């Protein structure tokens, strides 16, 4: 539904922090499914951990947040510009159930639970195959910045 070229037009993130490779499904105002291919070439594996590479949980949460941002932008019908910043406002109930390693494909399902007063609340689940790797409730907001 959305390839890397379209994602780059929506998200301000770039290598090495862009963590969404493709959007598989998008239902405005409801849900999104996206994927992140985890490869040994990523710089984080140099130090996390050299003897047993594991994709950091905080990056799984960031990948879920980037996926949530794509859903928020589609829901609002906006393309962010240089004056718009999309921030984390909170994370609740984060749980890590399975390590993610190079060669895994992280599939992220995010649903919009609530949108009120400029605050979005999402439920995110990241899986490898049928196994849950990470889940959390995410709160995010968009703000205009002075430039």
From TrEMBL:
Catalytic activity: a (3R)-hydroxyacyl-[ACP] = a (2E)-enoyl-[ACP] + H2O
Record's protein name: 3-hydroxyacyl-[acyl-carrier-protein] dehydratase FabZ
EC number(s) given by UniProt: 4.2.1.59
Pfam families (UniProt xref): FabA (PF07977)
Keyword Kinase: no
One cellular component term from this protein's GO annotations in UniProt: membrane
Active site residues per record: 48
Record-linked CDD domains: FabZ (cd01288)
Annotated localization: Cytoplasm
Main location: cytoplasm
Lineage of the organism: Bacteria, Pseudomonadati, Pseudomonadota, Betaproteobacteria, Burkholderiales
Family: Belongs to the thioester dehydratase family. FabZ subfamily.
Record keywords, A-Z: Cytoplasm, Lipid A biosynthesis, Lipid biosynthesis, Lipid metabolism, Lyase
Known role: Involved in unsaturated fatty acids biosynthesis. Catalyzes the dehydration of short chain beta-hydroxyacyl-ACPs and long chain saturated and unsaturated beta-hydroxyacyl-ACPs.
GO biological process, one term: fatty acid biosynthetic process
Organism: Tepidimonas fonticaldi
Gene: fabZ
EC top class, as a word: lyase
NCBIfam families for this protein: fabZ, PRK00006.1
GO MF, any single term: (3R)-hydroxyacyl-[acyl-carrier-protein] dehydratase activity
């Amino acid at each position: 539904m959305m390839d890397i070229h379209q994602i780059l037009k929506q998200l301000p993130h770039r290598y090495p922090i862009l963590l969404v490779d493709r959007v598989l499904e998008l239902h405005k105002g409801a849900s999104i499914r996206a994927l992140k291919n985890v490869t040994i070439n990523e710089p984080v594996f140099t130090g996390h951990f050299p003897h047993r590479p594991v994709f950091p949980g905080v990056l799984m949460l960031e990948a879920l947040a980037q996926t949530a941002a794509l859903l928020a932008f589609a829901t609002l019908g906006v393309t962010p510009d240089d004056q718009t910043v999309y921030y984390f406002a909170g994370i609740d109930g984060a749980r890590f159930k399975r390590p993610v390693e190079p060669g895994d494909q992280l599939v992220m399902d995010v649903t919009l639970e609530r949108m009120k007063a400029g605050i979005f609340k999402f439920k995110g689940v990241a899986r490898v195959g049928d196994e849950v790797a990470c889940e959390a409730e995410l709160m995010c907001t968009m703000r205009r910045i002075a430039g």
